[in-house]
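Q: Given only this backbone (444 positions), what sequence would you predict?
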């Protein structure tokens, strides 16, 4: 079993930069302001064929008493308790603060192995933080600069020296189903994540915008392993002004690209609004299928009327996707979540469906005879042949004698008929037209 490394420190000492440097990818959000990281995230780490799980945590501020600081502190302490080795990071350029000393006390009480890291040591001069760090009682600090990749090899050797030998570095990525949850702020995404994984990992509260980074988490449902991304809420573009929120939105979009199925979470009390449709269109443009989770359903009094209103709005805003799967849930009370997962599994199977050439062309003959394309200057526009070369998203190529003349309305007609005939509702469909003869005619 892989040992767990937790990167711990007060805000803005460079924990997320170190996390990204060790992993070798820009996964954690990084900005020149404190408090960017809130939920802790875990990624697999391989150092010279030794496998670990690396945790990036939120900075702990002992003096701050606001609700978000309290929740993030609890989350980071939970990561300390889970870890085998603590990478305690300080800012070498500045003197130690009361938060550094308070955090050192928490780490010391945990009884875990500690590697003291003095970050931001670019340049040859001895930094004040390095001198002060001896007072923490964790021995000599390892001087590094995660931003400039200095001292990272030495840190990797320190980690190996302080850990058990474990060469079972496994990559089971191909066997894991990948989900992402998108939605507006405060729609209940993190609460749903906590229910699925069975622990209070993601910070939740009445404040909107608590989640900033897109955090991948793992869980098992019906004997299937899943990786799921909790993402930051996406507001209207005109309201996204500060740099941290822009980074969060970019991270949410990256999570969409990585996923196979997306859950679009909406707040039942607000209903389905234009911004929900905007997010749905982003998901569809990425070629990802999605199921809509209508959350906080337990708070709705007139459920029949509200359900009708929501479904009419979805049909009005998203006619191009066909009939979308909808689950009415309460993430807080763990209601309707099995139904949501069942709909996600169904969508996943539809996305893998590849239709045979024969059944597609029998279908094409029927619908083109029933509704022929309008003529071009008196000449018939022939819809000759169809094939499906790709899945995820489902991609169809149709051959015609006038491919550039095919009207958008007729393309929508063909897509809608494919949805209806083969039950491709709720999944993106791509369709291209080419001006080639039937490739099989010469073989007859």
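A: Predicted residues:
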């Amino acid at each position: 079993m892989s040992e767990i490394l937790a990167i711990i420190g007060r805000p803005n000492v460079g924990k997320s930069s170190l996390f990204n440097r060790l992993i070798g990818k820009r996964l954690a959000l990084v900005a020149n302001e404190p408090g960017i990281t809130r939920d802790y995230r875990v990624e697999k780490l391989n150092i010279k064929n030794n496998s670990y799980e690396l945790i990036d945590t939120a900075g702990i501020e002992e003096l701050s008493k606001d609700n978000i600081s309290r929740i993030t502190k609890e989350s980071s302490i939970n990561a300390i308790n889970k870890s085998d080795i603590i990478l305690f990071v300080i800012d070498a350029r500045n003197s130690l603060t009361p938060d550094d000393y308070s955090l050192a006390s928490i780490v010391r009480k945990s009884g875990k192995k500690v590697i003291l890291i003095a970050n931001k040591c670019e340049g040859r001069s001895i930094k004040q933080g390095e001198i002060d760090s001896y007072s923490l009682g964790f021995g000599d600090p390892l001087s590094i600069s995660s931003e400039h990749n200095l001292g990272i090899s030495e840190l990797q050797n320190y980690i190996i020296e302080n850990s058990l030998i474990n060469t079972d570095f496994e990559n089971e990525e191909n066997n894991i189903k990948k989900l992402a949850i998108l939605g507006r702020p405060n729609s209940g995404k993190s609460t749903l994540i906590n229910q699925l994984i069975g622990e209070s990992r993601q910070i939740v509260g009445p404040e909107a915008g608590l989640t900033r980074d897109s955090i991948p988490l793992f869980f098992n449902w019906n004997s299937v392993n899943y990786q799921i991304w909790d993402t930051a809420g996406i507001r209207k573009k005109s309201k996204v002004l500060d740099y941290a929120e822009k980074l969060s939105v970019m991270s949410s979009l990256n999570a969409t690209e990585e996923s196979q199925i997306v859950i679009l979470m909406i707040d039942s009390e607000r209903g389905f609004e234009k911004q929900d449709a905007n997010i749905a269109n982003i998901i569809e443009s990425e070629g990802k299928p999605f199921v809509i989770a209508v959350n906080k359903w337990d708070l709705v009094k007139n459920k029949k009327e509200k359900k009708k209103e929501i479904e009419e709005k979805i049909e009005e805003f998203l006619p191009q996707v066909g009939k979308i799967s909808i689950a009415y849930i309460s993430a807080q009370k763990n209601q309707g979540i099995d139904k949501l997962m069942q709909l996600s599994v169904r969508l996943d199977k539809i996305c893998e469906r590849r239709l045979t050439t024969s059944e597609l062309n029998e279908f094409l003959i029927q619908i083109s005879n029933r509704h022929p394309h309008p003529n071009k200057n008196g000449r018939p526009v022939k819809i000759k042949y169809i094939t499906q070369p790709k899945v995820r998203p489902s991609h169809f190529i149709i051959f015609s004698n006038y491919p550039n003349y095919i009207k958008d309305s007729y393309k929508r007609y063909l897509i809608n008929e494919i949805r209806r005939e083969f039950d491709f509702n709720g999944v993106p469909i791509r369709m291209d037209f080419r001006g080639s003869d039937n490739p099989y005619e010469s073989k007859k």
